[in-house]
Amino acid sequence: MTRLPSFVRFVSLALALLAGVVAAQSTTALRVASTASVTTWDPSLSFSTEAVYLANIYEPLLWANPAGAEEPFRPALATSWEAAADGLSWTFHLREGVKFHDGATLNADAVVRSIERHMAIGGAAFIWAPVAAVVAVDDMTVRIDLEYPAPVDLIAASLYGAWIVSPAALDAAAADETYFEAGIGAGTGPYRLVEYTPDAEVVLGAFDDYWGGWDEPGHFQNVVVRIVSDQVLQEQMLLAGEVDMALSLPPTSYAAFAADPNYDVHTVVTPFNYVGFLNTTRPPLDDIRVRQAISYAVPYDDIIAVGAEGLGTQSRGPVPQGIYPWSEEVPRYTQDLAKARQLLAEAGHEGGGFTLRLTYAAENIIERAFAPVMADALADIGIKVEIEPLLFNQQWALAKADPKEAQDIFLLLYWPTYSDAGSDNLWSMFHSSETPFFNLSYWKNPLFDDLVDEAIELTGTDRATAQALYVDAMTILVDEAPALFFMDAGGWYAVPTYLEGFAYNINYPFATFFYPIRLAD
Fold it and tell me: Of 12, 55, 39, which is closest to residue 262 (Cα–Cα)?
């Protein structure tokens, strides 16, 4: 990305100051630039970036709090909840007096029908796999019965497949599966969907009967989101005062915004985890010593500096920091070229002398930036890396067709669907079952499988024991090195000082919650 010339930036800053004064006088509209396009307005099918909008239109039973909060969850449409001692049922007590945007009143039937629809057709239907039945105990109480113990609190707080939807809209969607795609919202959230221009603009308006109320001063009555795919253009719009917030700014502009007194810069930990799967099905990567050697050769600090502008942390396996069951007890490699050369020699590859084919998603600018850094480091221990950018669907097809013919190293950006990276990242990416979607190292370890399976079963009843089992599993994973564990990418937001209330929640990485944002005093 190119930086704005200094003079243009100076003029833009002056305009931004003037725009800030104007914006501070009115709560008519919060103006936002976002890359988030809409793949669907259907709250069940949603599994992409439209979550930016749906998280303001709909609500789940619970909200997951960021890591470090006193409590892991807070009430949303359920004010209290409890699990049975055996973990096979969870009971949720609903909030009284909640209205849907169409005027209907929240009750147990709406919750039951919403979850049943998510289970049947949802883009994230798999998160409800443990559920045997969803039962309306009475008008304001719902019980979720399970086939096996599972962390329903985590599931019910998901960004995908957990929204509670108006019964009238569910009826309409049952009669016409395209019902929502006209741009219809049917939730209980603080904002209604007012207008949608595909790939251009989304307008949200305050829902007057929102249970949270609008009594506190400074709330924005409308939110106008312009869909802008280019980060540099978003920056220009922010600096020129055309928008109050830009949700995706060029990484190279971080330092300039951080030094600007007109902005509060929020640096955040994200759930976006970068790995490099190693093809364990053929030599030389079928040898644990070669995989460990490569892990010791990786320049982790340089990859974070080049790939993420320094905004990231070296990962401890595939579970991102801030998401269960991450633990600082999990070991990680540090660059040690002498150790790498020693392991190669022990494996019969003294001085390296072989070539590896590395593919990455051509659309991913972070992978594009750090792949050469990694290749240069491996060259230092005698391993040649041939870098091949592919569109992600091409990279995916190559990896899924025949492991013996696939790439040697597959760079992947991954994040958990909801705030349980044990049943997602660890199981999906490394379990040796035939069904895991992303096991692209083709690695098999029965002990790892057993530990993860047992931890999944215990997460709903004994999370502390499950955590310990996951740590053991992740330690095996790091030791046997079927993948390279690069980094948990960081992120940042520049918010004008005339706004307050912006907060990032790692559990909802694609959502920006507009209701708490207001004019600063």
Answer: 12
* pLDDT at position 516: 96
Closest CA to 397 of 361, 355, 356: 361
How far apart (Å, rounded) are the C-alpha atoms in residues 505 and 512? 9
Q: Is 10's pLDDT higher than 80?
A: no
pLDDT digits (tens, 9 = 90+) for 231-271: 999 999 999 999 999 999 998 899 999 999 999 999 999 99
Give backbone dihedrals phi and psi of 122, rounded to 5 degrees, phi first. Answer: -65, 145
In angstroms, the Cα distances linking 281 to 278, 362, 440, 444 are: 9, 25, 10, 10
Instruction: Please write down the long-range contacts of 448-457, taking CB distance under 8 Å and 24 or more positions apart.
Output: 448/473, 448/476, 448/477, 451/476, 452/422, 452/426, 452/427, 455/325, 455/422, 456/150, 456/422, 456/423, 456/427, 457/148, 457/149
Q: Are 316 and 328 in contact (CB under 8 A)?
A: yes
pLDDT at 304 over 60: yes
Q: Are strands 409-414 and 354-361 parallel, antiparallel or unpaired?
A: parallel
Predicted confidence (pLDDT) per residue in 32-75, tens digit: 999 999 999 999 999 999 999 999 999 999 999 998 899 999 99
Measured distance CA(89)–CA(135) in Å, rounded: 10
pTM of this structure:
0.88
Would you tell me how many other CB atoms lie within 10 Å of the CB of residue 192? Answer: 19
Encode pLDDT of 191-206 as tens digits: 999 999 999 999 999 9
Tokens of 142: 């719902």
Contact 162, 118 (CB under 8 A): yes
Pair of tokens at residue 256: 């300039």
Q: Tokens 């005093």 map to which residue?
A: 521
